[in-house]
Amino acid sequence: MTKLAICPGSFDPVTNGHLDIIERASKVFDHVIVAVFHNESKAPLFTVEERMKLLSEATEHIENVSVDSHDGLLMDYAREKEAQAIVRGLRAISDFEYELQITSMNRKLNEDVETFFVMTNNKYSFLSSSMVKEVAKYDANVSDLVPLCVEQALKNKFE
Prior knowledge:
Elements: E1 4-9, H1 16-26, E2 31-37, H2 48-58, E3 65-70, H3 74-81, E4 85-90, H4 93-109, E5 114-119, H5 129-137, H6 148-158
Parallel strand pairs: 1-2, 1-4, 2-3, 4-5
């Protein structure tokens, strides 16, 4: 049986911190679906289609990773894809508190899917998509924070 994991997020945009988690998950699971979800509480800079394209380009070097999107509940999507696991990255204690609430609800909705938390690499512990967008808006150098395709897409958005 193939061990399938879903790495969900809004990925607006994907950062090197996200890629670190995705790459590490790809070494543990047979297949990882990076799923772009629309977060109603956020006003995205990139459309879902643009985020999927950027993720596809940024992960094209990882053979067992695919990119998809979903507009509903994560646990419904996991059931649909017959996934065994959800992979979430943690940067700090504050992330854990938030993720614990989500994981508890997800477990109530579908107890057959396990959630695995992966601690981010220390060099990305401060990094968030929001922060990247904020500094890119003022034309700051983000080349060491995001893949090249994202750096260019940010430049295009803010021109």
